[in-house]
Amino acid sequence: TQNSHTAKTVSRKSLCFLNNQRVSGAENMKIILVFLFVAPLALSARAEKDHSSFDSAASPETKSRFAMLDDVRILANGLLQLGHGLKDFVHKTKGQMNDIFQKLYIFDRSFYELSLQTSEIKEEEEQLRQTTARLQINNEEIKNLSQEMNSKIEDLIQNKIQLQEKVWGLEDKVTKLAIIQPSIQETKEISSLKAFVEQQDNHIKQLLKIVEDQHVQLDRQHNQIMELEDKLNHIELQELAENSFTEEQTEPEAIPFPVHNATAVIYKSDGAAPDCTALSNSGIRSSGVYTIKPNGSEAFNVYCEMKFGSSWTVIQNRVDGSLDFNQTWDAYANGFGELNEEFWLGLNKTYSITKQGDYILRIELQDWKDNKRYIEYAFSLGGPETDYTLQLSRISGSIPNALPEQTELRFSTADRDVDIINDFNCPENYLGGWWHSECEETNLNGKYVAPRSRGRLDRRKGLYWKPKKGRYYLLKSTKIMIHPTDLKSFD
């Protein structure tokens, strides 16, 4: 009787725990084992009781049978609940294992791509080392040859000095012979000496020219060796060094813009300016927020920046990371941020300005050592029906190009990715809307990341400039501006 009571109590507690789902998978297994162990004890105890009271009166037998049926029903319900719990646990475990396998697959793929990049870097480094070794050997040979040539030149100079002394002596003799008629033999000797002197002088001139050529070649080889050593040092320290531009870039002088026979952008009849350049030509000479009204568009505010004696319309400005650029498609179409701080003007507004004529796109970059660079493009921007397709052609700049040229680039965001590359959603991985062509090039609308003191740059997230052949430049600030190509159209 006591064992039967214990079995009922354990069964009811087990069922209570399973119904409330307050135990983990391991605890469920423990309860199953306890239940399976106690259940036979309860049944055997009930069987012994029934056997001992077999000869008892009829009413006790009937009561015992009903008690056994109750126990069986309790056990059956318990086993049924345990089965459902085990089924849910198995499904949950399968789901977790599928997630783990998916993450392992992604990690394995990323690790494989990283290993390929590492192998390419090692091969390039080995080729550079071999080239450097060959150039060093050539440099040593050239140095030895140069020393030999210098020695020969010194000997020739000594011979020339001796010959000049002889010539001077001959000139004295010739002067004397001008007074006293020389003999035929002396005349032949003088002619022979003159011819010998001229021959030696020509030979010395040839040797001097050869030496000069050798010096030029030696300097060229030395410069190549220095460049290769810089490349080797750069490869070895690239992953650990802080990414920055190599030297301070001063602001360039104003350069003439190419003229593309653009249709002149003129004022509206109501006096509203179509862009910042028109405002500048009307007499405004200070940077700030102004209202413009492009042809065929509503009026809106823009930030105009004075530069090179004219005014540029700023379409993007990032200085401190105070504004989150991981925005939706609608936000990038309409614009966001404060015009006096960080902002994105908006694709609709930019398109309404650029469709008036031909414009130049200027990108200004600054790294974390306050070094500055710029690059300028002739460009065209499509409308919303083309997903604001951008096409670039580099004009000038002080940094290698990092954006595809002569290629139609469609704008995309995390919630509207036009081109899926390698089954990855580029804007979602790289954060921020941009004209993506591949999931590894420049992104000036990425997450604002400050460099870590002794860490690696997270190249997949951040504000950076990445030429096709070159390293990543982690940026502190960026500014994108536009200006009409035909300056005379505003005069």
Pick out its properties:
single chain, 491 residues, alpha+beta, 10-stranded antiparallel β-sheet, 14% strand
Question: What's a concise summary of this model?
Answer:
The protein has 491 residues and is α+β, with helices and mostly antiparallel strands. It is built from eight helices and twelve strands.
Q: Span between N and C termini?
A: 110 Å
How many helices does DSSP assign?
A: 8
Strand share of the residues? 5-15%
Order of helices and strands: HHHHHEEEHEEHEEEEHEEE
- Mean pLDDT score: 77
Please provide a written account of the structure.
The protein has 491 residues and is an alpha+beta fold. It has eight helices and twelve strands. Strands 1, 2, 3, 4, 5, 6, 7, 8, 11 and 12 form a ten-stranded antiparallel β-sheet that branches. A two-stranded antiparallel sheet has the order 9-10. Helix 1 crosses helix 3 (58-179), helix 2 (25-52) packs antiparallel against helix 3 and helix 3 packs antiparallel against helix 4 (184-237). Residues 51-55, 236-243, 247-270, 420-424 and 453-457 have low confidence and may be disordered.
Summarize the helices and strands and which ones pair or pack.
Blueprint: H1 2-20, H2 25-52, H3 58-179, H4 184-237, H5 276-281, E1 288-292, E2 300-307, E3 310-318, H6 329-334, E4 336-337, E5 343-344, H7 347-354, E6 359-367, E7 372-381, E8 390-397, E9 411-412, H8 426-430, E10 434-435, E11 464-465, E12 473-484
Antiparallel strand pairs: 1-2, 2-3, 3-5, 3-12, 4-5, 6-7, 6-12, 7-8, 9-10, 11-12
Helix pairs in contact: 1-2, 1-3, 2-3, 3-4
